[in-house]
UniProtKB/TrEMBL annotation:
<dbReference type="Pfam" id="PF13814">
    <property type="entry name" value="Replic_Relax"/>
</dbReference>
<dbReference type="InterPro" id="IPR025855">
    <property type="entry name" value="Replic_Relax"/>
</dbReference>
<protein>
    <submittedName>
        <fullName>Replication-relaxation family protein</fullName>
    </submittedName>
</protein>
Length: 430
């Protein structure tokens, strides 16, 4: 946990202490505070404990000791009339340490916290998402550039900002913009943000633009108490994005989820897991075929061309698989199965799910589709994705349980649980 220490001297002759011993872990914490501007004791303790293996209140003691030497400054912030919480920002000696290491430029000066903290509930909520995302990335965080955006982050031809996100992560050529929603913004404001991201994607067509809208929930102690699971807010934002056609723009990718799930989704985007590419879909499709072969020996899957099921105007729905499902003992019994593998929180995925439901419900496919499977890569994604509640023709599952849907002696029914969709097995005939 601890690395070799270096003595950093303080220039000010009036300081009670002439310097401090600082190790590499300390430098990362100081850099984090500088980048994020303002962090709570809880956020810094969580970061230190989970990434560096500190125990108990070790980080808190370190921060208090640093505050005595002007390495950091402490401020007590009261949010929504709750008891004050201790927050830290970098002091002059902390800034000088980072300058000595070349981590920040020589001309950098102490920041005015009031320029950043206009709404403490909103700001600290953003920082929760940022800290938890860095923790989720583990060692991969070292390949991430974490940016506190400003008006210069995205400028148009005349130097005006397209938009100022709440936070930006960059990994190589991949940029993730994070917007934190406390639920107080009007949908008019949300629509304006969506329009601005559309403009940005058109201004920089050579780049892929990723946007994660994180909806505050009760995992955040700095917000009001929510008396719902935030499904309605998440779905309203997703529907607004769909209505604007933003999910159809090839280099613009929107994801919307709750604050508690945001670090997981951000992690998947930054690692390149989301959005799925053709190779991912192909491997999942092959896994499905193998699972069916092992678990459902009574059935034979025969791949069908897309044109056998979908009309020409439906070809832009992206990757999808379709099969003829033949019962080996009842050769005259043939059914059509459509397989759609989706990402949690993806707006494009929700639009596709809704499209397949409407097409199937209204008999718009070229052939009758008996099984339309919406498949997530994990049980957790299945349970936590927020989609509409009452689909009539779709079956939701994950890659571990999908063969169970087609076993003759069992059927699976949907029950809402924790704001998501989960499959429960029940007795019956399929």
């Amino acid at each position: 946990m601890e690395s070799a220490r270096v003595w950093y001297g303080f220039d000010n002759e009036h300081e009670k202490r002439k310097g401090a011993w600082i190790n590499l872990t300390d430098l990362e914490l100081l850099s984090l505070i500088w980048t994020n501007r303002y962090l709570t004791n809880k956020q810094l303790t969580k970061y230190g404990n989970q990434l560096f293996g500190y125990k108990g209140d070790s980080i808190q003691k370190k921060l208090k000791r640093w505050s005595n030497y002007a390495i950091v400054k402490i401020e007590y912030q009261s949010v929504l009339n709750k008891p004050p919480i201790s927050c830290y920002y970098l002091g002059k000696n902390g800034i000088n340490i980072l300058k000595q290491e070349g981590i920040i430029k020589e001309e950098e000066k102490a920041i005015n916290i009031n320029n950043y903290i206009r709404n403490s509930s909103h700001y600290l909520g953003i920082q929760d998402v940022v800290i938890d995302t860095l923790i989720a990335l583990k060692t991969n965080r070292k390949n991430i550039i974490s940016i506190h955006p400003n008006k210069d982050t995205y400028k148009n031809e005349v130097g005006e900002p397209f938009i100022v996100p709440d936070w930006v992560f960059r990994k190589g050529s991949r940029t993730l913009n994070i917007e934190y929603d406390t639920g107080l913004q009007t949908m008019t404001k949300i629509k304006e943000k969506i329009r601005n991201y559309i403009k940005l994607s058109k201004h920089k067509p050579e780049e892929e633009h990723y946007v994660l809208i994180s909806v505050a929930d009760n995992s955040n102690i700095y917000t009001v108490k929510y008396y719902d699971d935030r499904r309605t807010r998440v779905l309203n934002i997703k529907d607004t994005i769909i209505h604007k056609g933003a999910d159809k723009i090839s280099n613009l990718h929107f994801y919307v989820t709750t604050a508690s799930r945001s670090p997981i989704i951000a992690n998947n985007i930054l690692k390149g897991i989301y959005p799925f590419d053709k190779s991912t879909f192909k491997s999942e499709q092959e896994l499905f075929e193998l699972s069916m072969e092992i678990s459902n020996s009574n059935y034979q899957l025969v791949p069908l061309p897309k044109k056998e099921i979908f009309h020409n105007d439906s070809y832009n729905i992206g990757e999808i698989a379709q099969y003829e499902l033949i019962h080996k003992e009842r050769t005259n019994s043939k059914q059509v199965l459509v397989l759609n593998i989706v990402e949690e929180a993806s707006v494009a995925a929700l639009n596709k799910i809704n499209f397949l439901e409407e097409e199937n419900k209204n008999n718009k496919f070229k052939q009758e589709v008996s099984h339309l499977l919406i498949v997530y890569q994990s049980r957790s994604e299945l349970e936590n994705d927020i989609v509409m509640k009452n689909y009539e023709t779709l079956k939701f599952t994950d890659t571990k349980n999908w063969p169970l849907l087609l076993q003759g002696e069992k059927q699976l029914t949907l029950e809402k649980k924790k704001g998501g969709r989960v499959l429960e097995r029940t007795k019956g005939s399929s």
